[in-house]
Amino acid sequence: MEKSNQIFAAASATVGAFGLGTVLAWTSPALESMQKESEEFKEISKESQSWVGAILTLGALFSAPVCGVLMDRIGRKNTMLILSVPFVLGWLLIGYAQNLAMMLCGRFISGFCGGGFSLVAPVFIGETAEDSIRGALGSGFQLMVVLGILFVNTVGSFADWQWLSLICGFVPLVFLISMIFVQESPRYLLMKGKNADASQSLCWFRKKTSSQEVEDELKIIEISVNESKAEKAKFSDLALPHNLRPSLIMMALMLFQQLSGINAVIFYTTNIFKAAGSDLDGNVSSIIVAGIQVVATLAAVFVVDKLGRRILLTASALIMCIALVALGLFFHLQENGNAKTIGWLPLVSLMVFISAFSIGFGPLPWMMLGELLPPKVKGLVASVATMFNWFLAFLVTKFYQNLLDAVGAPACYWGFAGVCAVGTAFIILIIPETKGKSIDEIQKLFGAPTVTDDSEESRK
């Protein structure tokens, strides 16, 4: 199979995404298990629980600048290989934690490594896959994240928090073993002036036996690398209107994505069902919700280029808003003793919420990073947007429990619903459709000068 090496490389890299999913979902089954079965954590406070859930996002936030530098210094592959070692250590610290400090340290390290994969793996896949399969392989990253979430909720339904942690610790080892057999990105090798190694690498990815067979593609990559070196982005470039507008749109999409409350739902799914007094076991409900997320994410891969970005984002935000209103309504009725006949509503609401998120606000903001941003400032804005996203994730997961205690469940979920409502209006009024448009055509929408414009200007 001609593309088998590219598929194998992408599959190996996305094992790191699977690992990120396990980190994100771990608290949902583990917190309840810790309180039931561990003397050290039997009386763990709600404040401490919020730190156990949230500190991984701080680790992921700090990993963005570190891994951004590392992948340009030592390579995409080597950066991911290095991340796999502390990833295992992080899970061991969690699994053998004797106190809160060990637990928090392990969660921070695993969050750092998982966040590092979320930055490096998509870059690696984008640089090694052919145009014809780049979209499908790139979409595999988000799919593996939600598969990791489903895996943790399933294993966590029968394994205690310690065994769950140790099982999750095998995931980075699987990545380490498989990635050893993968070549480095040819683009990175050209950046370092290793042309012969780059040619050999590209031959491996394209399953060619002779460097002459990849010579034309290698030249195209080399031209792109040279252009990137010649046009280093500066923060002052962001003040230009054609750079500022798409950059602000990306920041807004990240804001709406995280303030929809998605990470609070993923981190505390079991707790939500427990608080709702659902007839279904909390772990079973979590598995159902995670399974729905996998199916919806897979569906998004097939419909995003047919329906368009704006339609999916609008439908996603609107349906999420309705689902959160319904969830808040359930808790409002529960407080007044009128929710006995609608114990099914929390499960349905979260299934609808997760489905809507997974077809729109989950994958599309990350996909649109590559579409909306001008090439010159793409790397700079992508790094800032990634850190902003993880910072918002920290705020939501850390203060979710505080918000619940301060205003109550109905107001909390209605607040998230309000964010989704504002997001719906923002998409309709501000965001342009990018389906079927080239990068040049998208930049024209923001008033960016194009090659044609520059040529006409020079003739004048």
TrEMBL record:
<comment type="similarity">
    <text>Belongs to the major facilitator superfamily. Sugar transporter (TC 2.A.1.1) family. Trehalose transporter subfamily.</text>
</comment>
<feature type="transmembrane region" description="Helical">
    <location>
        <begin position="343"/>
        <end position="367"/>
    </location>
</feature>
<feature type="transmembrane region" description="Helical">
    <location>
        <begin position="284"/>
        <end position="304"/>
    </location>
</feature>
<keyword id="KW-1133">Transmembrane helix</keyword>
<feature type="transmembrane region" description="Helical">
    <location>
        <begin position="161"/>
        <end position="182"/>
    </location>
</feature>
<feature type="transmembrane region" description="Helical">
    <location>
        <begin position="248"/>
        <end position="269"/>
    </location>
</feature>
<keyword id="KW-0812">Transmembrane</keyword>
<dbReference type="InterPro" id="IPR020846">
    <property type="entry name" value="MFS_dom"/>
</dbReference>
<feature type="transmembrane region" description="Helical">
    <location>
        <begin position="100"/>
        <end position="124"/>
    </location>
</feature>
<dbReference type="InterPro" id="IPR005829">
    <property type="entry name" value="Sugar_transporter_CS"/>
</dbReference>
<keyword id="KW-0325">Glycoprotein</keyword>
<dbReference type="GO" id="GO:0051119">
    <property type="term" value="F:sugar transmembrane transporter activity"/>
</dbReference>
<dbReference type="InterPro" id="IPR036259">
    <property type="entry name" value="MFS_trans_sf"/>
</dbReference>
<keyword id="KW-0472">Membrane</keyword>
<keyword id="KW-0813">Transport</keyword>
<dbReference type="InterPro" id="IPR050549">
    <property type="entry name" value="MFS_Trehalose_Transporter"/>
</dbReference>
<dbReference type="InterPro" id="IPR044775">
    <property type="entry name" value="MFS_ERD6/Tret1-like"/>
</dbReference>
<dbReference type="GO" id="GO:0005886">
    <property type="term" value="C:plasma membrane"/>
</dbReference>
<feature type="transmembrane region" description="Helical">
    <location>
        <begin position="379"/>
        <end position="401"/>
    </location>
</feature>
<dbReference type="InterPro" id="IPR003663">
    <property type="entry name" value="Sugar/inositol_transpt"/>
</dbReference>
<feature type="transmembrane region" description="Helical">
    <location>
        <begin position="311"/>
        <end position="331"/>
    </location>
</feature>
<feature type="transmembrane region" description="Helical">
    <location>
        <begin position="49"/>
        <end position="71"/>
    </location>
</feature>
<keyword id="KW-1003">Cell membrane</keyword>
<dbReference type="Pfam" id="PF00083">
    <property type="entry name" value="Sugar_tr"/>
</dbReference>
<feature type="domain" description="Major facilitator superfamily (MFS) profile">
    <location>
        <begin position="5"/>
        <end position="435"/>
    </location>
</feature>
<protein>
    <submittedName>
        <fullName>Facilitated trehalose transporter Tret1</fullName>
    </submittedName>
</protein>
<feature type="transmembrane region" description="Helical">
    <location>
        <begin position="136"/>
        <end position="155"/>
    </location>
</feature>
<feature type="transmembrane region" description="Helical">
    <location>
        <begin position="413"/>
        <end position="431"/>
    </location>
</feature>
<dbReference type="InterPro" id="IPR005828">
    <property type="entry name" value="MFS_sugar_transport-like"/>
</dbReference>
